[in-house]
Design a protein that fits this description.
Blueprint lengths: L21 E5 L3 H7 L3 H21 L4 H31 L2 E5 L2 E6 L5 E6 L3 E8 L5 E7 L7 H4 L14 E5 L2 H15 L7 E2 L8 E2 L2 H5 L2
Antiparallel strand pairs: 1-2, 2-3, 3-4, 5-6, 6-7, 8-9
Length: 219
């Protein structure tokens, strides 16, 4: 049993008011979250390079190859533990996160030790950006209208990478990011007509296009 078992509605801080309905819910895929948010591949590559350098350096300085390898292997568990810790954090974040799109807002519920629920009404969303990988997983980032702002530490790792000055709350590592974007586009068009001017950024070299259900579905 967890603290989330007592939620009145899964992924939401309270019961939905009259006239509001859930259109979509999803969770981040833990492995994609590990690679994209926790950079587990880069960390593993770093440890691999450092261990290789340690072995080669020992051999260059006259140590027997077998001895150098054994010495390196003796510290390898520390590197494995570091990578494992990041993987565990990604898994835990995935297990405790629920993204929700209603006909009025986007809600990010996350947190293992301390649960948080970030409510983002459509009326304060200025733009949305979709990034999709070859496997279909991707991120759906939201830019908020000024002066609305969320602190990076308050929403990480559910934030768009490298937007330190203006953090963007992001639905990360979605197994089918295009489907979530299509739901958001359709809901915003029905609720906030100005949403028709919003754009989607696609991974690779594809140009930005209007954020509409038809263009998102083709991503």
């Amino acid at each position: 049993m967890s603290e989330h078992d007592f939620e009145p509605v899964r992924g939401l801080p309270g019961v939905l008011p009259d006239g509001e309905t859930i259109l979509w819910q999803g969770e981040p895929r833990w492995f994609d979250l590990a690679t994209e948010a926790f950079h587990i591949r880069a960390v593993a590559a770093y440890f691999g390079a450092m261990l290789s350098w340690r072995t080669v350096d020992a051999i260059v300085h006259g140590q027997a190859a077998s001895t150098a390898v054994m010495a390196t292997l003796s510290v390898a568990p520390l590197a494995a533990a570091g990578v494992g810790l990041l993987a565990g954090m990604a898994w835990l974040n995935s297990r405790t996160t629920v993204y929700t799109i209603t006909n009025k807002r986007v809600v990010l519920r996350f947190g293992a030790a301390v649960s948080k629920a970030i409510n983002i009404p459509f009326t304060i969303i200025e733009s949305a950006a979709l990034k999709v990988a070859q496997n279909g997983a991707g991120d759906l980032a939201l830019t908020l209208k000024a002066p609305n702002r969320l602190a990076l530490l308050h929403i990480w790792p559910h934030a768009r990478p490298w937007r330190l000055g203006t953090p963007q709350p992001t639905l990360r590592a979605l197994p089918n990011a295009s489907a979530a974007a299509a739901v958001l586009a359709s809901a915003m068009q029905a609720e906030v007509p100005i949403a028709l001017t919003r754009t989607v950024e696609f991974a690779g070299t594809a140009p930005a296009r209007p954020l509409t259900p038809s263009t998102v579905a083709l991503a």
